[in-house]
Task: inverse folding
């Protein structure tokens, strides 16, 4: 009998196409009768999301996950369930967003209509290639982006439980993609920025939106507005356009709150981190001025439920 490590080793040697992210590895196995088969492996300690990808009217669509090994904790529609070997998540039968927590390595057989799978697989490959580019330029930004994405999705799910998470997911992940176009000596400058330098930094919103609008992946093009609006303020004093209140999308309002909180609680080159309690006070101060009050309320509730932990 082969051990898990040996099986892993064989899979590595087979050079099957794969998409590697910080949460999962999708290894393409092959296709038959219009269905693509892959191995979807969740990395221990990760949370990821499974949701129905096709249009509602497409009856022939298949998207199914069968647990092969490990224990998977799933939260859907406010209910928590545990799935084990042989259990199936069929997104057509249950199109709600499934939040999947893997305490240990969880392996699933992932079956999907081939045309969808191919597009999805290629898109994810490109997205993670671009994500790695951000990591190469700025390690901080990369980890910051993953955290922003995770918390933005969680907040989005609480506020809009029935709507798709994929636009928020890529929009929040790439919210600072425009920083790739900003010189590093300005981005990482310790001390005060000059007015000109500050104006250059502000351009990361419009430059980023431009990069998204021209992106080869449709999902990223659709999420460009989040990148463009993530530094707008509820009172209209933000940038680049000075949008106010509900002129700012809920998606961008969420990213703005999560982004600000993460920046406050993380050490940066130009200042030390605040404590969680200090950052919570800042969020309350900014409620209705910098931030959308509804988003702040939900954010603080979420934090409280996590015992004010942020990691
Ligand atoms: Fe930003």
Result:
């Amino acid at each position: 009998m082969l051990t898990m490590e040996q099986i892993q080793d064989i899979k590595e040697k087979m050079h099957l196409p794969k998409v590697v992210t910080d949460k999962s590895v999708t290894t393409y196995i092959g296709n038959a009768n219009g269905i693509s088969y892959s191995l979807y492996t969740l990395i221990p300690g990760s949370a990821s999301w499974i949701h129905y990808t096709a249009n509602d009217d497409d009856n022939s669509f298949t998207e199914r996950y069968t647990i092969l090994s490990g224990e998977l904790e799933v939260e859907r529609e406010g209910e928590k369930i545990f799935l084990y070997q042989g259990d199936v998540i069929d997104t057509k039968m249950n199109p709600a967003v499934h939040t999947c927590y893997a305490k240990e390595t969880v392996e699933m057989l992932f079956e999907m209509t081939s045309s969808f799978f191919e597009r999805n697989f290629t898109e994810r490959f490109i997205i993670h290639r671009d994500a790695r580019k951000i990591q190469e330029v700025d390690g901080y930004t990369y980890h910051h982006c993953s955290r922003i994405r995770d918390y933005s999705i969680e907040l989005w799910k609480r506020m809009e439980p029935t709507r798709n998470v994929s636009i928020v997911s890529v929009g929040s992940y790439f919210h600072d993609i425009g920083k790739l176009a900003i010189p590093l000596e300005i981005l990482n400058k310790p001390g005060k920025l000059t007015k000109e330098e500050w104006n250059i930094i502000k351009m990361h919103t419009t430059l980023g939106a431009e990069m998204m609008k021209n992106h080869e992946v449709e999902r990223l093009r659709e999420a460009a507005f989040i990148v463009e609006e993530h530094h707008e303020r509820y009172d209209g004093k933000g940038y680049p356009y000075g949008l106010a209140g509900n002129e700012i999308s809920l998606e961008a309002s969420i990213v703005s709150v999560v982004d600000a909180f993460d920046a406050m609680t993380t050490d940066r080159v130009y200042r030390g981190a605040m404590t969680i309690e200090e950052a919570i006070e800042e969020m309350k101060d900014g409620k209705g001025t910098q931030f959308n009050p509804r988003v702040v309320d939900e954010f603080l509730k979420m934090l409280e439920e996590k015992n004010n932990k942020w990691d």
